[in-house]
């Protein structure tokens, strides 16, 4: 860590760690929190120095704008521990940049890179015993910023809080996913905030997702809001479709989150000699491919869910089942990306980031 | 009030009121809060009895879903005091119903009518000295519900808080508004949450609105996200356009909030013999009307802003100025609706609701 910022990060440690209360062999996703958090306040037009304090309650006035006007953005990252107990992050600067892209779209202040990175590293070094080493587990990291200023006028807040909290976590999904291709509801508008990791994007998905769950699906695949013809993304994952031996994924746009897993998968696949097409893909093309047997795989890709294979999809009251293959792209690509993330393989792309 | 619920509303009063610190002749909008608030918690699948407590800070875990996934809905209402010191609400059951419509779309629990209405009335009776009687002032009322349950999994919260806070307030806008008809950004998607009073809908408007403010406008007029050709609504107002002697406003849809002021204005105007058309209206029709002199008025309508006349609009780098008329529809309709709201006229529509 460079000294300019880290000298200023004050650390207030807990008296007693909660770590002994945690069953690291049965970790849920995102429900157990570590002993400390990083907090940084924006006031009078500038960010204060980050502080590490005991993880604990935040106190807000009932008029705080977060309750009323939805100014909140977040990131999702993971810290991995290898066999030598070294700590690794995966492309963390991309999360840092994306947080600022999200903030800008919601008229929230951007955060200097050093505050994010050095705050995060100091926190991880303090919490390193919390990084699980059980299979498929990692320390899920949640950096977020929300409007903490007060007022019922529908205008941007003058105060914000940046927090990083950490949660030792197991897998996000249990098994393979059955998904519903959405034909009525939508996730984002042209010219809207879909490309931002903004809180409001998620709340809007819950009701349609509940309807899908009631019908026996686990996730909704969103389509464009104008024609419902083109595949966009899922709840917290970008979507890949394999037709014959070509891997296809939608281009990013102002409606789709520019996923770090997505772009890494594209690069790894290309490097493996897999044909990758980044282009619009219509539901009809997928149905046709399913009907003629060329549809081989579908999977979601995201930090939380890593790579989640899809077993089948529903579309207009009909269910389509994907074949059960050996040696899937999903399995190969998942092994490759997690081997890089957990430092089990060489890092030819330069994505791994050592925290020490 | 019926006894079933009100018996259960517990009231914990402040020791010392803050009311003497308030300058009722210089009230800002939504920045001063009364002594008490109503709070009601949803847990284990049900709402607890509403409580009135001193207005004060709310304490939340950093993992509370409001910070991450945008589950928040709200309403905006006003209480008016007449010359006899009687207290009035305007169509409050419509706010109560709309809150539930918003909640449902965000997968949040609906609130029983009695909790809302009797909680609100008990609170207003306690805070009646806070209802201002200075010109254009009222007690702005903010009922809201947000996700207070914890967890980083992107799924609905299992806990919620319903709160009603009150703010003695002056006018929302200063003078006439200069607006920009938006051609790139948008507020809501087909199949999205635009019709809900959801927090995230507002955060998404701030950045484009800031861009408009930098160009000298005060508000953005949103257009549909597919073609940017049809007028939808403004930040917190529905929009009316007068061409010759016909008043036109867009039909409500899943992209547009079903405003209570809007529908009241439609009824009052019709009752006055004004021709009203509820139909899609394109930017081109407005430009043409401006060019040939038939565009007479534009105004916004909403609880906070009441009726806000528009002086002119920008569209594709060009400014269009509206004529300065005597006896505008805006002025007539504003007088009629506020006379009903403040109990200065008969209430032929049955919209006024007495709180006692
Ligand atoms: C809407 C959405 N799409 C895609 C992703 C995947 O992005 P990433 O791979 O950067 O985690 C996420 C999760 O972060 C998401 O929330
Ligand atoms: C987006 C939006 N449109 C319109 C309105 C006007 O609705 P109402 O007249 O019910 O206040 C509001 C404010 O409530 C609003 O937030």
Automatic annotation (TrEMBL), chains A, B:
It catalyses: L-valine + 2-oxoglutarate = 3-methyl-2-oxobutanoate + L-glutamate; L-leucine + 2-oxoglutarate = 4-methyl-2-oxopentanoate + L-glutamate; L-isoleucine + 2-oxoglutarate = (S)-3-methyl-2-oxopentanoate + L-glutamate. It comes from Lutimonas vermicola. Pathway: Amino-acid biosynthesis; L-leucine biosynthesis; L-leucine from 3-methyl-2-oxobutanoate: step 4/4; Amino-acid biosynthesis; L-isoleucine biosynthesis; L-isoleucine from 2-oxobutanoate: step 4/4; Amino-acid biosynthesis; L-valine biosynthesis; L-valine from pyruvate: step 4/4. The keyword Heme does not apply. InterPro entries: Aminotrans_IV (IPR001544), Aminotrans_IV_CS (IPR018300), Aminotransferase-like (IPR036038), B_amino_transII (IPR005786), BCAT-like_C (IPR043132), BCAT-like_N (IPR043131), BCAT_family (IPR033939). Its cofactor is pyridoxal 5'-phosphate. Belongs to the class-IV pyridoxal-phosphate-dependent aminotransferase family. The keyword ATP-binding does not apply. Keywords: Amino-acid biosynthesis, Aminotransferase, Branched-chain amino acid biosynthesis, Pyridoxal phosphate, Transferase. SUPFAM superfamilies: D-aminoacid aminotransferase-like PLP-dependent enzymes. This is Branched-chain-amino-acid aminotransferase. One of its GO terms (molecular function) is branched-chain-amino-acid transaminase activity. Its EC number is 2.6.1.42. Acts on leucine, isoleucine and valine. The lineage of its organism: Bacteria, Pseudomonadati, Bacteroidota, Flavobacteriia, Flavobacteriales.
């Amino acid at each position: 860590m460079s000294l300019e910022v880290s000298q200023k990060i004050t650390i207030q440690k807990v008296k007693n760690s909660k770590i002994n209360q945690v069953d690291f062999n049965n970790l849920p996703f995102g429900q157990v929190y570590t002993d400390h958090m990083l907090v940084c306040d924006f006031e009078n037009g500038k960010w204060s120095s980050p502080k590490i304090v005991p993880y604990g309650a935040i106190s807000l006035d009932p008029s705080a704008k977060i309750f009323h006007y939805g100014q909140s953005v977040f990131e999702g990252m993971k810290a991995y521990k290898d066999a030598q107990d070294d700590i690794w992050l995966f492309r963390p600067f991309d999360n840092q940049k994306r947080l600022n892209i999200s903030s800008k779209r919601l008229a929230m202040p951007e955060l200097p890179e050093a505050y994010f990175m050095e705050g995060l590293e100091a926190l991880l070094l303090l919490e390193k015993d919390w990084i699980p080493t059980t299979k498929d587990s990692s320390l899920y990291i949640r950096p977020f910023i929300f409007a903490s200023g007060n007022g019922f006028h529908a205008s941007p807040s003058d105060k914000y809080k940046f927090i990083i909290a950490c949660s030792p976590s197991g897998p996000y999904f249990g098994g393979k996913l059955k998904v519903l291709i959405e034909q009525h509801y939508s996730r984002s508008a042209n010219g809207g905030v879909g490309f931002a990791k903004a809180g409001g994007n998620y709340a809007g998905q819950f009701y349609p997702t509940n309807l899908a769950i009631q019908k026996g699906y686990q996730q909704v695949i969103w389509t464009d809001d104008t024609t419902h013809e083109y595949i966009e993304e899922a709840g917290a994952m970008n979507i890949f479709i394999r037709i014959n031996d070509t891997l296809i994924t939608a281009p990013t746009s102002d409606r789709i989150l520019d996923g770090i897993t997505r772009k890494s998968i594209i690069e790894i696949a290309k490097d493996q000699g897999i044909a990758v097409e980044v282009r619009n893909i219509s539901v009809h093309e997928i149905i046709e491919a399913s009907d003629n047997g060329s549809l081989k795989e579908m999977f979601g890709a995201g930090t939380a869910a890593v790579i989640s294979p899809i077993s089948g999809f529903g579309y207009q009251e009909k269910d389509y089942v994907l074949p059960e293959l050996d040696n899937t792209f999903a399995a190969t690509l998942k092994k490759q990306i997690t081997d890089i993330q957990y430092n089990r393989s060489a890092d030819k792309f330069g994505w791994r980031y050592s925290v020490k």
